[in-house]
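task queued by scheduler; priority normal; single chain, no ligands, no partner chains; default sampling; output format set to structure tokens
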Amino acid sequence: MQFVYRDFDQAGLDAAYNNSAHVGMAKRDAYVTGWRQRSEDLRSKLPHERNISYGPSPREILDWVPCGKPGAPTLAFIHGGYWQLNDKESSFQIAAGVLPHGINFVNLEYSLAPGKRMSEICQEIRRSAQWLLDNLARLGGDPNRLFYSGHSAGGHLTAVAMSNPRVAGGLAISGLFDLEPIRLSYLNQPLGMDVMESRRNSPSHTLPKAAGRLMVTVGGAELSELQHQSVEYYAAWRAAGLPGEFIPLPGDDHFSVIDRIAQPDGILSRGLARLVHGGGLAGS
């Protein structure tokens, strides 16, 4: 047997990162359909500004959803899809879990592979953070209380956003923090990463010297590699002296984790409120 990464052969590594196959396509599709329906319903009810440009590329756009309190903190959310699928439209539902806690919601879009390389995607996220920091006061938010969150690839991009020391904190959900196994798997076909691009865009290899507070979370029913990614990254984050907290979600799979932030009483939306409003972290 030829090993391509740790003790994985090619088929094993590909399976280790195939979330849809692990959960089942029918169940995965039901999740996605529900997200889109709830997002469409909520979008029709909430005052918001849609498709505001934060950069030069067509997909460098965001939705601004105010919570109704002047000078409130803001959460920018980044959707998943392994940097090559999906869009922000199905993530609008997360506003329902955020706004009741007095937090503005930003629904963030970004370019996808193969149209853009990983380095360019990461640069877009950094650009979004700077744009928000420069414009939150005008929109009605507090630029000193900008937080990022994201799911899967969005969890990776949340860690990228945290490289800006003015980002006050983050919540990385089921993220990918070491891109080397991604480079070696089937997922790299549209991404086209080489060793150097993989490494320089891996948050586990590019920890900041100083950063805001970070919560890391992953479902206990997720693929073991997804759990390994979050556990190892959180350990590296704390070993670097950075403030954070790990939140386990014992019964959740890669898609049900979204419910924990999309509902106001979810463990992640409540944790986010604690983070944003200064309630303290277990690992601070």
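post-processing summary
- The chain has one domain: 11-276.
- The two ends are 44 Å apart (CA to CA).
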